Amino acid sequence: MSNRRKLSKTDLAALVGDLLAAGTNVIAPLRFADQGRTAIEYGPVRDPDEMVLDGPQPVRSLKEAVFPPTDVLFRWRQTKSKIEIEEVPATFPETVIVGARPCDAAALDVLDRVMGWDFRDEMWFGRRQATAVLSLACTSCDDSCFCTAVGLSPTATRGADWFLTPVDGGYEIDVLTPKGEALLERYKARCPDSDGPATRAAGVEEKVRANLDVRPEAVRAWIETHFEDAFWKRASLRCHGCGACAFVCPTCHCFDIVDEPDGIDHGTRRRNWDACQTNLFTLHASGHNPRKDQAARLRQRVLHKFGIYPSRFGEVLCTGCGRCVRVCAAGMDLVAILAEIGRAATEEGGAR
Amino acid sequence: MQELKELAKKLLEEKQVSAILGYEYGRLGPRPAFATTISDCDRLVFDHRCVHNLAAYLSPRRTQVAQLGRLAVVVKACDARAVAGLIRESQLKREDVVLIGVRCGGVVRDPAADQQLDAGTVAPRCLECEKREPALADHLVGEAKPAPPGNAARDARIAEIETMSPEQRLALWTSLLERCTRCHACRQVCPMCFCERCIAEKTQPAWIETSPHARGNFAWHLTRALHLAGRCVNCGECERACPAQIPLGLLNRKLARVMADRFGYRVTDDPSAPAPIGAYRLDDEQEFIL
User: Fold this and answer.
1) Strand residues in B76-196 grouped as ranges (E)
2) What is the domain count for chain A?
3) pTM as predicted
């Protein structure tokens, strides 16, 4: 299903204004500035003019719109031996994401697999259903982008309800899902029919391809047969073991559950983002840690994304956004790591 | 930098050390590197983009690095202050490490983005730096360097915050710390955050809530700042590593000022200089004791 429409920049701003006026949450890339540093982050829009749709990739991924860094599961109150549970409301506000990166929109779809697998995560799907994703084709990339190596592209429409392609003065819109159709129905007046072919920005995809040329199947085959390889230690020595890579990742979804007292007799159960690169992640109460060093933790991260997830859900847990590379203070570089694994796989010939 | 490479090779050949911890050029700029063979040494570099404080790898919690054996480490003057801190606080023995001091004229803020060193790209920590080379070093390499570009107006922001009312400061830090997701990059890159079990990881009781809400974030960042008072070497790594771009250095530099004002103490690369946190002086001010 595809319905081609067009939308001028002024009408996009007006459409966002309409949404805000109707009480809909709008999330878009915004600019933050402090101490001479600036960053683009997805955030709640208060004024359509704040949106930065042509800037660099937001530092953090879009996942927090659906899976916030901390989320209340329920509240409890204890009176003598009795515990009362107060459920949190299971309704989620209607939200429209404007200017999602294709790698971020695809990640939501990738995560639907695990979130609806053995246990259906109501918080995830509640927000997913209330959220429409308007993706925007990438017109630029940098040295860390590698979406083309994991089956996506700067114009990948996966996970998008509308896909916007920049053209002179505005956007061509592909309306891709029933949710997208419903949104269009409300704002049809601003989006006239378009018969013109969307002109894709030339050259971006080629630049991304040049960053990394590796087949995920080859990476998987090599990892699954090189569990104890010296490579892991060599590649992980510089890692500081923080959670920055996992926290900016659009597909990392591990969480920790904590009970926090808010007073003597009442408190909150929350779930918070967690990261497999930290020592504490697998530390047992006994003091034993099955992933005893950074080599084991790096292997876990790469194995989960390129081995375990594909074995369970048929696709990699990575959309090639490159955030983990950009954000790492120690220069850990997943692009270089995957390239080296790809080279080793080719040399050993076992992966073909 | 041939001099550095030759020295590294010599140290390995003479078996003075089993690895050199320095910098190499990665795809996106310089990054920490461990050279364990003579040919590895040819990868070693040093320039104004080598921002990382390598002393972080010397803390005892880096078990994999410790397994490499005796290390030689490339240190700028600021990094040497961290090495001195580790020695001062009994985390490292001076004789267990060979220090290759590098002459430094300042480094950039972002090694991946900033190519040239100028007033616009210089790292904040360099603006008041008076040391072009570390005193704590076994070897010293590189040519003499000029002072870093830029002016010493780095702490205008602290002066500005000092004029604010407590309510305004609370509002400022609430908005800054709101962005923290508790990835703990600030702690992991910090050479002085070497606790085997951080107080933020303790659960019985949970002194610091792990949730990234206002309560947890304030507890974490203020506790960390207090733990670093008189210890922070002002390498700026926490601020550089923060994916949320929180200006953590403001807290640390403010506390460094307090330590200077109250105790006349500035963090140095002399490991024998007693730090206020571990020293007792009869003439310490104690007017707050009633």
Assistant:
1) 97-102, 139-141
2) 1
3) 0.94
